[in-house]
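User: Small ask, check this?
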Amino acid sequence: MPGSRKISDQLTGIQARRALDEARLAGGLKIQPQEKEGEPAAEPTLISHLRVNREEARLEVRVQGSEEQMTFLARWKLFVLFIKYRNQHHESNPLEVIKLLPEKEAMTLHLQLPKYFSKVFYREFFRVYLDARLTILFRWQGAGMTLSGRLLDLSAGGCQVAMPFQLALNLVRPLPEWMQITLEFPNEEILRLEAELSYLKPDETFTQALVGWHFMPADSEQERKLFHYTLEAERELARLKHPGRSNLHASRLFRPAPKKEVKPAGKRLHPAFALVPKSYASQLQEIADQLAGQVLLLAARKPLDSAHMGKLARQFIHLLEEDTSACLLALEQPHRNIHRVFLHTFRVAARCFPLIFKVGITRRYELPAMVSLLLHDLGKLFLGHQPCFNPLKEPQPVLRQLKINQIQLLRSASELRWIPKDLGESLMVNANERLDGSGYPRGLTATRLDALSRLMGVVKVLDCLVHGYNDPVRSWQEAYQWVYKHDHWFDKNSLNTFVTHHGLRPVGSYLHYKTGKTALVSRVSDRGQLEEVVLINKQDAEGRILDGRLLSGGELQALGSPVNEKARLEFNPLKSS
């Protein structure tokens, strides 16, 4: 489009073919005539029908319009094809006209097949880049959540928003094409309007997500407001850059509203009992944030960052081996700031990692093994928040999308060439397979599943059973019994390996004693022997321990043998917020 500024990134080869096929089915494609110098000759025209003829290496494009419009288009020998793929606009390389079939109010063009598509974000309006002194907040409410961020730039046509990586994960799953967003200014003036997500990616420093939005004003009044806000932002920015100029007056929009008096809470919250050092929670959140950044690379169809993934794996291994029981206990606690898919992934990685060396993996491969464990479930983030579900029970569109995501994950992981193929296949591809062939994604039977694949399947299903998710929460004893009874799906030898190392009452188990007291298992030996518990004196409604006492040695023995184990009370962040 004339006078527009664009930021590009290319899709080639298989990606270009896939993008064209998906965009053709979605519709909304356009073509635009081009001058020989590469400049647009007119505004894009909507395509009424597109056929991809790969045998003859051509596109068959049909457009409709007035006789005058068709006559005008017939003059040009070069066209650019515009498509939308993965919530992002793309344009093809210039395509030569091979054949022209004119009609009275329609025309069919035979064009060359595109060699590549370039990612495009059109900026048709004057844009202001905001520095840290100008704060405009972004909010979107939908699907039971609120996403918020800070504007980095603003125009009447759209904006760029910065938000934390994990918050941005909510935008990688299927969403409506147009969403109701809110812009909030310091003086508390707000504007609600519809907008389209145009891109989602990590920033250059890999510290936050960048989200591009294209506005769709409801009427001319709303569009006028957007122009006004953009000009006011530029005026305020100019004033801040020249503090000595008295003729530059402060913008009303950026005058902070009076702070409202906050009434003190009527009831003081009881601090939680410190089960593990706070550093564990902060380190786990840091790993989750960086892993979320890798998901955004996947969403943008880019390869994973090898250096970042290696660093994350080393950090997690260090955290786990520094104090295994403390790390496991930290992962069993509620974490509002860690995505539930990541929490499931971390628990599986933490419990599976020490076991892989019991089934033939040497320490030489600990880094690629940990990277594979951290990556194995990322495809589920593109479907929602549920860590545990059977994909084969989902509708066909969901299953198809999960397969696409899994293929993309494996292609991206293949860029990490230091992960041996067999190791990555066992931990990433086969994690959801079952012995009788009823698993996912390939339906492999026992004869084609190695010990590592079988072990991974057992660890994953145990975590799903103990934490419930869609099903009733089970105790560890109940989970063990369930897996043992379903030996047509899961491997008994792998279950035995797990129990031998983690014990009949793993870290995180809740135990009942004859005295009526309840304790949380906080430490076991590397042979699964009970070493330490937290005697629970007081819990809140969400299951967090408010008052407790650590017992080990003689004090632990004095408690006697537990009479039974109870299922953990699953923490519900929505209920407690």
The CA atoms of residues 19 and 514 lie 64 Å apart. The chain has a mean pLDDT of 87. The chain has three domains: 10-119, 127-244, 278-504. The first strand starts at residue 10 and ends at 12.
